[in-house]
Design a protein that fits this description.
Two copies of one chain form a homodimer.
Chain A: H1 5-16, H2 22-29, H3 33-45, E1 49-51, E2 55-56, E3 65-73, H4 79-86, E4 92-98, E5 104-110, H5 113-124, E6 129-142, H6 147-153
Antiparallel strand pairs in A: 3-5, 3-6, 4-5
Helix pairs in contact in A: 1-6, 2-3
Chain A binds a DNA duplex (30 and 30 nucleotides) through α2 and α3.
Chain lengths: ~160, ~160
DNA sequence: CCCACGACTGGGCAGATTGTCCAATGATTC
DNA sequence: GAATCATTGGACAATCTGCCCAGTCGTGGG
């Protein structure tokens, strides 16, 4: 659960320049290569680092519109079947169950506003979804990031 | 803007097993190594692949609570100064300006519900923020993903 | 119909990196 | 003090990377 400063620096370094290898990391951080490897193994084992997958920019794929859609779900049946069906829609990038007046919140992307309507229709068609409400993301002044959190956790 | 099937398979392969190198990719996909390298270079140049940074799990760092906070912002001054200040809060993982009754939506994490109150207070204290409303993510049946989108785009 | 162009292939090369061991040295805990 | 754990610095073979090249193939233009 805790991360020390070396871990934080290591993660930040990898985040800044993912292409550098373990050896280069050890040089930059002025520690032995084995230490870096051990740290990375431990971080991965603890689940802090879940992977190194390529980061994809949906807008570069033509999906320029991002929206957040909240759903109200019919009580009978629960969220699970709805979530399962939402998962089948590629444009649904993530889905959460939430507190408050609505039941789920999902982030969707689309190629245009008109295309967003198509995606929303797909969602509305999901069995158990009663109604939806959506807001469009106009701008993203703070894109998804975890580095500040890592630095804070490594204090 | 378009991606062909080989690109999609390549990205999916890398997403599934990020540790394998270019050479191994070429073997798996039954193409020449140079092709894989060229494809990856192009995808990166086109902005489709923005990086290979380590994926961090906030909950593994002790940030078990995720919430979505919507903000109403004082008109004078606009969003920019608010976004700048939000960016200084490590627990704010992302922030968007949005359509609808509210002005911004941000995703925040905290160590506990009590800690979430602290984070929200930080947000409320930001100059220009008039009021906030938050919902807590109880479960995340569909975690953030882009692979289905990539596969769909590579059709 | 032919040609140029871009993409892919298959190969080779030197240099760097990886995975994996090891013994020795702190640092911390009991 | 004794044991434990992390780190260091070094070694090794095997592998991979970055880079280059010549030849082939398919498409679109001339």
């Amino acid at each position: 659960m805790t991360i020390d400063q070396l871990d934080a620096r290591l993660i930040s370094l990898l985040a800044a320049e993912p292409r550098i290898g373990v050896l280069e990391c050890s040089r930059r951080l002025a520690v032995a290569r084995g230490t870096v490897q051990a740290r990375l193994d431990r971080l991965a084992a603890r689940g802090v680092i879940t992977g190194y997958g390529p980061d994809i920019d949906p807008s570069a794929l033509g999906y320029d519109v991002t929206a957040f859609v909240t759903l109200q779900i019919r009580q009978v049946g629960g969220h699970v079947p709805v979530a399962d069906r939402l998962a089948l829609i590629p444009e649904v990038l993530e889905a959460h169950t939430i507190t408050g007046g609505d039941d789920m919140l999902c982030r969707v992307v689309a190629r245009s506003n008109a295309d967003l309507q198509r995606v929303i229709d797909l969602i509305v068609d999901v069995q158990g979804v009663m109604r939806t409400s959506s807001v469009i993301a106009l701008d993203t002044p703070v894109p998804y990031r975890t580095m500040p959190l890592v630095s804070a956790a490594g204090a």
